[in-house]
Amino acid sequence: MIDFSILQQGLAMLASPWTFLALSGGLAGGILIGALPGLTATMAVAVLAPFTFFMDATIGIPFLLGIYKGAIYGGSIPAILVNTPGTAAAAASARDGYALTLQGKSRKALELSLFSSVVADLMATLVLIVVAIPLASIAIRFGSPEFALLYLIALTMIATVSGGNAAKGLAAAGLGLLVACIGLDPMSGYQRFTFGNIDLLAGVSLIPLMIGMFALSEILMQLTHPPEGQQTAGDVEHGGERLRWAEFWVLRPTILRSTSLGTFLGSLPGLGAEIACWIAYGLARGRSREPERFGEGSLEGLAAAEAGNNAVVPSALIPMTVFGIPGDTITAVLIGALMAQGMMPGPLLIQQNPGFLFGLFMVLLVTNLLLLVFGLFAIRWLKQVTRIPNAVLYPCVLLLCVCGAYAVNSSTFDLLILVFGGGAGYLMRRTGFPIAPLIIGLLLGPGFESALRQSLVFSNGSLAIFWSRPISLVLLCLLVLVIAFLAWRGLKPKGATLRLPWSRRKKPHNANGGDS
What we know:
22 helices, two-stranded antiparallel ribbon, mainly alpha
């Protein structure tokens, strides 16, 4: 039976002019940030999240969702125009998008990117709306053993898919769990790893650490190891003919297939848009009748990459809203923002704040329509964004980092955490350790510890509680399967590895016949 009071609360949230202004501003700002090479979607959400703590949840959370959606799409603009992905999620789009630009078809490529993104985002949002409530009705039955196993599965998956080296991913996740132990023991009240510092009694402040590890470390990487050999916006003439409806219509199987794949991958913890874009691109090439055109200006390849990465955005909210587990690093920041607003992501969010959640669903749908409008405007005017020099860009971002970190608790100690996080993130990037498992391990650590210890208390220390309940037994079998697959992948001979379509990087030819 439909609860019309919940529908009324959700529609009232959407009807608020401040909510509409927030999501519109977030979407426009996200597109702009995504179009700036070096500024990632995670960086944008992490830096701006503290400023939403002083807003109402119906304003701040739509603002962050708008940034999330806009930045993922906006990253395709410099990828197509100057072969420099604005975000990691647009890396696959650069292959065929820039090749089309070299052929004088940049407008067609930009329009295809926009339309594919809008279609994928809309379909994935509808999936989120359909499956979130039924899954939550199952999640509400979870007890401590089920949540402990669920957290462990999420940590295992995230640790192994967030980098090329599974051992480094697991080590980073373990370090995140260790950092999560800093502070007071939740059950005994004893101090752990505080070293007598009263500022650490409440643990490490999450938002300043994330801003440092994602944003500050990215600035350090860009300054110390700037990308070489990239063309500027003025090197190639942009424009050309528009995308014809017949050209877009013939790509519908590719877009639908990539959207389905991106939606599925986004709903799995740890498999973000950065991975989905390449898997969708590879699948499209394997199913294409003209695979030799991929990398040389294929509309099919560009549509697959854009549909795959944009479908991840709404679907990554599924594990966040249903189980309280981040689907990727950006939803990890969103969980922190929700907790700062006094809301607990997971089944309790649906149970205690159903009107707010329904309003978020409506916000996602409206933001999707606005993406089409703002995207058409961005295609025309954001070509000049790639001309902003780093000497102007990075000081502005650094100022936002400092202000955002300090705004959380108005504490100078948080600035030290910001600097420490930036240095640690820089070292991890330089040594090949992924940052995402550490952050998500830090985020899930308290919940995992609490669920594990409560389970052992209930069972008087017996591990049988993890396989004596039906749901926990299913999750335990799933965990064993995940570990077995990872062990098989790590032990199989190198010669038996799957040759992915993008492993042979053929560079698009420039106008003079050489490689670009």
